[in-house]
Amino acid sequence: MRHRIVVLGAGYAGAYSAGVLARRLDPADTEITVVNAAPDFVERLRLHQLAAGQDLKRLPLADMFAGTGVRLRVARVEAVDAASRTVTLDDGELAYDTLLYALGSTVADHGVPGVAEHAFHVTDRAAALRLRERLDGLGGGGRVLVVGEGLTGIETATEIAESRPGLKVALAARGEPGDWLSPAARRHLRRAFDRLGITVHAHTSVERVEPTGVMGANGTVLASEATVWCGGFAVHPIAADSGLEVTDTGRIVVDRTMRSVSHPDVYAAGDSVHTIGENGLPLPMSCASAGFTAMQAIDAIVGRLTGREISSTALKYYGNHISLGRRDAIFQLVDGRAQATSWCLRGRPASLVKNGILRGAAWSTGHPTFGMPTRRRRLAASPARSAETALA
């Protein structure tokens, strides 16, 4: 019987991992199944563009995995039973020998009333399309309020303002937008807001979202025909309910190789994993972190199953890359403590670099057969014993 590897989620971490595992493991010994709720790979880092009205190229997962031997199962994950090594889907059940959990994250409402009922967000394709439809309905005028001063909030506000200049776009921030950036980057950000006509409501904490706007904690009322919630991310509760050890935020606790500390046949990558970077701090939820944790999980799974040494992937966070529309951006380098350095790249050069990174990420994920070896690794006689040896 072949060793059953199940990958949950086909985002940046999951889709990449499935393709590389297929490239490195012999199909005579392994059966790799990817479970994803949608049939397409979604470039999550471009969803604010989709919401603003731009069309993104469709990337069918079936085409991406064609010729790899990876099985695609389009279904929604409802539960994981780590004790019995089964996954409950909306169309049945799936058993595994090794599980790679990469379900990612969704919008976090932080308990603010009205977010679920009245706010839009851009954390998945369906949500981005709902916002796009709402913006279309506003026609040439209307007020849009983006709540959140982080990367997603800044990118969403600037993208909408640039793509739909007839709308009045505002940003509500608990502090100062971009206050973690270097002085030069902050100045550039303020100029971008001014250039795009974005009104910034700094030091405004939102207490409630209503159909016609938001109520601030200080009693301020901000009117809006479309409120976009960019207040952070939260992981799906599936991991916390599965029996896996998780943090108080629901992220899976792993060792240095992305292996669950409570269930050795489970690995995690992407937003759903809690791991400590080289600087001693938890890696943030980001595309870069998804890449590093996926590479480490792949090496660990392959090493343990084949009885080979597990290499160590550097877990570093290099900086913040912020789009400010299609032709402007900021890349802010950070130091070993994740604090902004004095160096940053701004304007068109930063935009070109970011677009190149996004294209590269989508291309590498969408071409898992690239460099496929003619001879792949056979499993050890007893992968379970090899796994225990690798942990020692």
UniProtKB/TrEMBL annotation:
This is FAD-dependent oxidoreductase. Residues 380-392 have a biased composition (Low complexity). Keywords: FAD, Flavoprotein, Oxidoreductase. Pfam families: Pyr_redox_2 (PF07992). SUPFAM superfamilies: FAD/NAD(P)-binding domain. Residues 372-392 are annotated as: Disordered. Its cofactor is FAD. The keyword Glycoprotein does not apply. Belongs to the NADH dehydrogenase family. Residues 4-273 form the FAD/NAD(P)-binding domain.
